[in-house]
Amino acid sequence: MSPHVPVVAARRTAALMRRLVLNPSLPWTKQRARMERATGGIKAPKSIEVSTDVVAGVPVEVLSPIGREPKGTLVHLHGGGFTVGSPAAVRGWAGALADRLGIEVVVPDYRLAPEHPFPAGLDDTEAVLADVLARWDPATVALSGDSAGANLALVATQDRSKASLSLPAALVLLSPWLDLTVDRLDEPALVKRDPLLNPEWLAMCAVAYAAGHLDEPRVSPLLGDVGGLPPTLVQGGSDDILAPDAARLSQADGVTLSVASPLWHDFSLQVGQLAAAEAALEVVIEHLERTMAIDDG
């Protein structure tokens, strides 16, 4: 893939997404419709088959290498503040990983708030993860998520760890949103630098997802025990309004932090557009090759 979008142009596009899609003045239905239009054109590599399925009662999108038996599975949870978004938004990133690693990527289309508040999306996540870990050797399974999806991925891992259940071999968290109690307006300089996320929108999403439960560890996992995780890569941008969450998690054992500057929230998903996203993808690939048992040898 040949990156061709200058960073300044991509930053302008992110700002446009904030104004036209992730806007607290818009109803959820309009935000979702606009998000689908914005992400509907994202394509997986031609070597990847994109199909739909139902896993543990949850609709999923599955990206698989054409003509190759998958060597493992990555379950990825898309972002969108628990309220918007779909598997389409991560098709390029997930497809690139499926192609490069020879694995299948399963992206749950989990239930969204406010129609389905906490713990609906988490329940869907845990059901899919349990099914995958029952069918595959856990050593060949990884779990990832971006933004709110990273929250779901981390909480699902914490829940399985507490229950002494099998864990995925690796965890990848992109621009994670891990503490919903934080008022992001408390860091105005960072708010000004992130072109994509609006603190008011985040606050609205938090209430829609888990009003009355924001300080519970299964909603804000940084408030719980972050020990005993599988090898974890946390990736983000220096200008991400949620960068403090990534930095806090990086203090836990077994967690590696990768920060790109001067990039913003979820820049890693822009594979094929940003050189920085291509470089970030290589970091993820190295992490998964090192931690998953998918070596042909």
Report on this model:
The chain has 297 residues and is an alpha/beta fold. It has a single domain (7-291), classed as Alpha/Beta hydrolase fold, catalytic domain (Rossmann fold, 3-Layer(aba) Sandwich), CATH 3.40.50. It is 37% helix and 16% strand. It contains nine helices and eight strands. The chain has an eight-stranded mixed sheet, with helices on both faces. A hairpin with a 2-residue loop joins strand 1 (48-55) and strand 2. Helix 3 (91-101) crosses helix 9. It is globular. It starts with 6 loop residues before the first helix and ends in a 6-residue tail after the last helix. The model has no long low-confidence stretch (mean pLDDT 96).
Brief descriptors of the model:
297 residues, alpha/beta, 8-stranded mixed sheet, 37% helix
Radius of gyration: 17 Å
Shape: globular
Spatial order of the strands in the main sheet? 1-2-4-3-5-6-7-8
Low-confidence spans: pLDDT under 50, at least 5 residues? none
Number of domains: 1
Beta-strand segment tally: 8
Task: Count the DSSP helices.
Answer: 9
Instruction: Characterize the biggest β-sheet.
Output: 8 strands, mixed
CATH topology call: Rossmann fold
Architecture, CATH level 2?
3-Layer(aba) Sandwich
Order of helices and strands: HHEEEHEHEHEHHEHEH
What is the overall pLDDT average? 96
State the secondary-structure class.
Answer: alpha/beta
Distance from N terminus to C terminus (CA atoms, Å) equals 27 Å
Q: How much helicity do the residues have?
A: 25-40%
- The CATH first-level class comes to Alpha Beta
Which strand-content bin applies to the residues? 15-25%
User: In CATH, what is the homologous superfamily?
Assistant: Alpha/Beta hydrolase fold, catalytic domain
